[in-house]
Amino acid sequence: MHTVYGGEKTPQELYDHLSKLDSDYTLEACETYADWIREIKTLKQERNAVVLAHNYQRPEIFEVADFIGDSLELARAAKKVSADMIVFCGVHFMAETAKVVNPERTVLLPDLRAGCSLSESITAEALADRKAELRKAYPDLQVVCYVNTTADVKAESDVCCTSANALQVVEALDSQHILFVPDENLARYVQSQTAKTILSWEGNCYVHHQITPEHILSVRRNLPQVKILVHPECREDVIQLADAVLSTSAMMRYAKESPAQEFLIVTECGLSDRLLLEVPEKKFYKSCKLCAFMKMITLDGVLESLRHRRYEISLPEDVRVGAERSLERMLQLSA
Ligand code: 13P
Ligand code: SF4
């Protein structure tokens, strides 16, 4: 396996590494990045901090990350942290999840604008109303919430899930009727794989929802040999064109282990960048959709976050305990 992140890269080494991706990475920019990376590493030691990063983060962020993964891996990694501080390079609900399982540690999110269209599509109050209404018709109803939700929505749910274990969690529940919130696309995908009845919510990821079958078909027409890997937050008509439907880290594993040489990565572009850097012997085509929320996190933002201990995530204890129950049940059902 290639060692691509970490270590102390000179500005030239950083430039050689990052400029494989695009021309925005100039040598001058990499000189600044190399200084920031050195400073971040020193501050991490002084503060006894770790950096957890989602797969969609900018590649220069990976240089300071102690762990990179999908939502499920990050939730598991957050539970194992023994440092005093976690700097979360991802979006708000992910940092909240880290806080839920680490009440006594400081969890920082470098930029509070790092939200998520899915988590913003539902509130705990609206969920409580819908649940009460549906339970009149379906007394066995259980609520499964996607991890892309706020802690109070998790607390209002019976169990949480991620894109890596949604079907496994639904299948493990002893109810026929499931209210699956808030991603309508993921709910539809789970419905296509299970005999249970899935009731959904009107929410979607604005990044994945923009991708259309025409995007995929035009690539397939020109490159019939490519394997098409699709995230389950995509629309149903896009999912139908996939060779495999996978979470972000499962896409990484599939691309590394498959004998195929060429792949279309149908998810946020950060993942294709990670693959281009980590698997240089294979070819990756991007769906080229950026998540503006994920990209709010920048290297200088991480530096400022560590310098000024900002922005600290805090949760009311009853909400934290409720969300923890939902997350723990997920980890137990998908162990
Ligand atoms: P993964 O859990 O597959 O990394 O997905 C998280 C996410 O936000 C996808 O848009
Ligand atoms: Fe939310 Fe979509 Fe961005 Fe993931 S890619 S954080 S689901 S808006």
Overall strand count = 12
CATH superfamily of the largest domain: NadA-like
- Please identify the structural class as seen in this structure: alpha/beta
- Quickly give the CATH architecture of the largest domain: 3-Layer(aba) Sandwich
Helical residues, percent: 40-55%
Instruction: Give, in order, the helices and strands.
Output: HHEHEHEHEHEHEHEHEHHEHEHEHEHH
Mean pLDDT: 96
How many distinct domains?
Answer: 3
CATH topology of the largest domain: Rossmann fold
Count of alpha/pi helices: 16
Q: Span from first to last CA? A: 27 Å
Strand content: 5-15%
Described by strand count, sense and barrel closure, the largest sheet is: 4 strands, parallel
Outline: globular
Low-pLDDT segments: none
Bound molecules: 1,3-dihydroxyacetonephosphate, iron/sulfur cluster
Structure description:
With about 325 residues, the chain is an alpha/beta fold. The chain has helices at about 10-20, 25-45, 60, 70-80, 90-100, 125-135, 150-155, 165-170, 185-195, 205-210, 215-220, 235-240, 250-255, 270-280, 300-310, 315-335; strands at about 50-55, 65-70, 85-90, 105-110, 140-145, 160, 175-180, 195-200, 225-230, 245, 260-265, 285. The strands form 3 sheets. It has a 4-stranded parallel β-sheet with strand order 2-1-3-4, sandwiched between helices. Strands 6-5-7-8 form a 4-stranded parallel β-sheet. A 4-stranded parallel β-sheet has the order 10-9-11-12, sandwiched between helices. Helix 3 links the parallel strand 1 (about 50-55) and strand 2 (about 65-70). The two termini are about 25 Å apart. The site of 1,3-dihydroxyacetonephosphate has 10 residues, from loops.
